[in-house]
Amino acid sequence: MGEAVARVARKVNDTVENKADSLDLANCKLMSFPVGVYKAVRSVTEGIHRISLANNELKSITSRFVTTFSQLRELNLAGNYLHRLPEEITSLLHLRAIDLSRNRFRRFPEPLATVPALETIDLEENEIAEVPTDKLASMALLRSLNLRANPVGPEVRLLVRPLVPFELLLSPEEPVHP
Predict the structure, then answer these.
(1) Which of 56, 145, 150, 158 has minimal Cβ neighbours within 10 Å of its Cβ?
(2) Collapsed DSSP state (helix, strand, coil) of residue 138
(3) Cα–Cα distance between 164 and 155 in angstroms, integer?
(4) Over the stretch 94-116, which tens digit does the pLDDT of each residue have?
(5) What distance in Å separates the CA atoms of residue 173 and residue 35, rounded to the nearest whole number?
(6) What is the DSSP string of 20-57?
(7) Nearest partner of 25 among 89, 93, 80, 64, judged by Cα
(8) Per-residue pLDDT tens over the stretch 26-74
(9) Which of 54, 63, 53, 52 is nearest to 89 (CA)?
């Protein structure tokens, strides 16, 4: 445990000292975003454009996280235990890419449909069966939606260009055996 805490502290210090535009806390065994980090990065939050919290043990992302890092362009939350996102995610006006693969989403996180700059959404390996196709079709900048390894219904498979202006990635259909 102490080793993981020290690793987080080192990575946070690197970001602050170098005024880096990214904060990489992947593989740090985090169960929640450390409250102390907010204070530690206070002087550089506006400059942080990329955060990776991949492969931790996060069960939720708080509204404080989203509002603190308001300038995010890329957010990697892959490999956690997330099943929902806070409504405040819609305030990330510059967010272009979000990786939510290998989590526990049962529904498409609908707040994402109103994030204006979003170009790439990765939801591979979740438990999503239904997708708000009408909302997705109205996302002007969305270029890629990865829903591979999700139990999506047949209506999602009908989403092809020109109905939707983005690339939809799905797993091959399982053959139906009588």
Answers:
(1) 158
(2) coil
(3) 13
(4) 999 999 999 999 999 999 999 99
(5) 43
(6) -SEEE-TTS--SS--HHHHHHTGGGGGG--EEE--SS-
(7) 80
(8) 999 999 999 999 999 999 999 999 999 999 999 999 999 999 999 999 9
(9) 63
